[in-house]
Write a structure and sequence with these properties.
The chain has 174 residues and is of the alpha/beta class. The protein has a single domain, classed as Glutaredoxin, CATH 3.40.30.10. The protein contains five helices and seven strands. The mean pLDDT is 86.
């Protein structure tokens, strides 16, 4: 009798684990943030890299018609590749404010990165632990969000900005 109960118990546990396993396999576990477009950004507050006491928050995004929030790091090779497009955007378009958020990096490396390549950012904040990036739906870098002055996300760019995306950004902000 004890052997039958033990067999039933083992069979039940194995069956339960198999069901959980196959349910897990059928779920889409990709982190999809495309549904952010059209939504407003969450309230946030970060500290400026260059002005230790200055806080950067959603109010900084209401000053110009558009803001581009760009997540970057000194250790990120694709960030170097897209940097020329950010520089062009900052020089050629005065109706956009570019906010850089330095992701999981340190101040010295970020400063060296910007000194070497040029600084396209109106403001640069730090997200050393990567926690604030979650508010923006960021799961890798580089990523960028184009936001209007009503704090609505117009476009999300996953990966480095390339020539086609640069041209699309120019069209969206004109």
């Amino acid at each position: 009798m004890k052997i039958n109960i033990l067999k039933i118990l083992i069979f039940s546990i194995v069956s339960f684990l198999l069901v959980v396993f196959f349910i897990g396999l059928s779920k889409n576990s990709n982190y999809n943030t495309k549904n952010l477009v059209g939504n407003k950004i969450s309230n946030f507050e970060l500290i400026s890299i260059f002005e230790d006491e200055k806080k950067i928050n959603q109010e900084n995004l209401k000053i110009k018609e558009y803001s581009l929030i760009n997540f970057f790091a000194s250790w990120c090779l694709p960030c170097r590749i897209e940097h020329k497009y950010l520089l062009n955007l900052s020089k050629e378009n005065k109706q956009i404010k570019i906010i850089g958020i330095n992701f999981k990096d340190n101040k010295v490396n970020a400063t060296n990165f910007l000194n070497e390549l040029g600084n396209p950012y109106d403001l640069v904040a730090s997200d050393t632990e990567g926690k604030a990036s979650i508010l923006f739906g960021i799961y890798g870098i580089p990523e960028s969000l184009l936001i209007d002055k009503n704090l609505t996300i117009i476009k999300k760019i996953i990966g480095p900005i390339n020539e086609n995306q640069y041209k699309e950004l120019i069209k969206l902000i004109k």
